[in-house]
Amino acid sequence: MQSEDLKTIEKDVHKNREALIERLVGFAVNDVLLFWSRDKKVHDEQEKKWTPIIAWVNKTVKGSFKKTTGLEVLKENEDMSLKFKEYLNKMTDKELSCFYVAALNMRSVLLALALVKGKINALEAFELSELEELYQARMWGTEPTAETRRNNIKDILICTEQYLRT
Hints:
Layout: H1 3-15, H2 17-28, H3 40-61, H4 75-78, H5 81-89, H6 93-106, H7 109-116, H8 122-129, H9 131-140, H10 144-165
């Protein structure tokens, strides 16, 4: 991804802002940070690294996103839609376009928000979004296709952060 790609996305965001925000709000209930592992070691790592992000997002959007170890979307997370939508509506087109790219690549609007607002940087966002997969890779070794995919995501996040900060 190049900054020219992000400029094109920013123009598209300007034209389709309302529909894009609706789509992003829909992603929030399925955020990777809200679905925790039942594996104790992974869960402990999630507790240490994800809890501060969830708390920061809740404070920032004045909300109450909740985690689960199940597969069902929690009612509290569904109820966050309106608050999250209000928050996204306040973003500039540039912020929203970077948020969109980051959220899609990380499967996390919570991490995208932390990245866009400068709470975390691109490398931190990447590591947090890939926490479970990186844990598995440390345990069992890496697979070339997965490693390539992760490197592509990392590059996209770095480019997105650089574009946002210019």
